[in-house]
């Protein structure tokens, strides 16, 4: 069945802010909601999405094999065992980012027609890997943390996305620490939205459950007690039900809750999807 | 009946500690990365070994387990990747026996 998937790229500029974790959790939660999802790891040479999803032992073909015509896209897709409808197209581990082109990515995504969503995990940096990752994307989700370096890179990425005609950009602020914000030692959500003028789609608390679940290769969304899991589940609700108001996590009341809501819903583009 | 080690691990909450899971998974994936052996190559090796085995034994595809593990290197300094094959021998074929 042809569904014409919505294609998201998860990007950040800076490394280590949580792109791969975000990709895994959004994909797993979308699948848990009955959607058919293909994740694509474009971090060629530094493959990790397979490991985060505990699919590392099942990689046969990879993205470069598909690009070079060594196999069909559906042969390279690994079906997740825990989440029905979730598939991974893994990156090659022994090649470099120049092994594929932007055109390759567009062609590969065109072959994945019977998915509801394609989520592309972008490598750090702004070189060829980034260009490949955004080539086929309709929408971008930027992951950042409340650190000066991450925010600066996010701002640079927003500029590059806009220059590449990706105007639907939303922001996930990751690793929020309420205790530090309260003391004034961490930028608040409002502080960051002031600097990065894009719509907010989620805030994720700094949570050791993420480390524990990644150790085991189980997305944290499956942990119904964890706050970060709840944060990711909320983001997926906002992705699926574009018009529905999904309240932000309780922790936001400490960080300018009302102004946050105002900012989120004053963004017309988001509401119209 | 009474297992002291499992009791202590329960008390200290270290049973199935996620860091051990992480360490185990990492070691395995790093061995694969360093050996640069993908599952595809393993499949080819497996099928060729299988052809030889089938000449002489009743082994079937399901009996044979080939994977990459690590083994202590000969100089005793660290570990090196090793190809491990576990092949139970069911019945040796008699020389005059017909092949199925």
Question: What is the compact description of this entry?
Answer:
The complex is a heterodimer of chains A (273) and B (100). Chain A contains 13 helices and eight strands.
Describe this structure in words.
The complex is a heterodimer of chains A (273) and B (100). Chain A has 273 residues and is α/β, with parallel strands linked by helices. Chain A has a single domain, classed as P-loop containing nucleotide triphosphate hydrolases (Rossmann fold, 3-Layer(aba) Sandwich). Chain A is 41% helix and 16% strand. Chain A has 13 helices and eight strands. Chain A has an eight-stranded mixed beta sheet, sandwiched between helices. Chain A starts with 5 loop residues before the first strand and ends with a helix. The C terminus of chain A is likely disordered. With 100 residues, chain B is an alpha+beta fold. Chain B has a domain of 63 residues. Chain B contains three helices and two strands. Chain B has a two-stranded antiparallel sheet with strand order 1-2. In chain B, strand 1 and strand 2 form a beta hairpin. The radius of gyration of chain B is 20 Å and the shape is elongated. The mean pLDDT of chain B is 73.
């Amino acid at each position: 069945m042809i569904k014409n998937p919505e294609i998201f790229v998860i990007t950040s500029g800076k490394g280590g802010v949580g792109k791969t974790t975000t990709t895994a959790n959004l994909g797993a939660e979308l699948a848990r909601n009955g959607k058919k999802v293909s994740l694509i790891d474009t971090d060629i040479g530094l493959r990790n999405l397979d490991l985060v999803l505990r699919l590392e032992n099942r990689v046969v073909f990879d993205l470069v094999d598909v690009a070079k015509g060594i196999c069909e896209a559906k042969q390279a897709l690994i079906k997740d065992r825990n989440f029905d409808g979730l598939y991974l197209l893994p990156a090659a581990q022994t090649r470099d980012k120049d092994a594929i082109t932007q055109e390759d990515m567009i062609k590969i995504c065109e072959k994945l027609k019977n998915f509801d969503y394609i989520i592309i995990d972008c490598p750090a940096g702004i070189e060829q890997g980034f260009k490949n990752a955004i080539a086929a994307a309709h929408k971008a989700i930027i992951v950042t943390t409340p650190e000066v370096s991450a925010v600066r890179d996010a701002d640079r990425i927003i500029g590059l996305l806009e220059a590449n005609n990706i105007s639907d950009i939303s922001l996930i602020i990751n690793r929020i620490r309420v205790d530090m914000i309260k003391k004034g030692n961490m930028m608040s959500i409002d502080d960051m939205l002031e600097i990065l003028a894009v719509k907010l789609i989620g805030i994720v608390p700094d949570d050791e459950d993420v480390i524990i679940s990644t150790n085991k290769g189980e997305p944290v969304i499956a942990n119904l007690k964890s706050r970060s899991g709840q944060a990711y589940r909320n983001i997926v609700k906002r992705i699926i039900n574009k018009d529905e108001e999904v309240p932000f996590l309780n922790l936001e009341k400490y960080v300018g809750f009302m102004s946050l809501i105002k900012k989120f819903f004053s963004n017309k583009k988001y509401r119209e999807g | 009946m009474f297992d002291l080690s499992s009791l202590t691990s329960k008390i200290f909450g270290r049973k199935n500690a996620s860091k051990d899971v992480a360490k185990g998974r990492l070691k395995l994936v790093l061995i694969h990365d360093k050996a640069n052996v993908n599952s595809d190559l393993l499949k080819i090796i497996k099928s060729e070994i299988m052809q030889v085995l089938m000449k002489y034994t009743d082994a079937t595809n399901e009996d044979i387990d080939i994977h990459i593990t690590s083994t202590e290197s000969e100089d005793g300094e660290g570990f090196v990747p090793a190809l491990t094959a576990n092949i139970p021998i069911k019945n040796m074929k008699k020389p005059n026996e017909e092949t199925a």
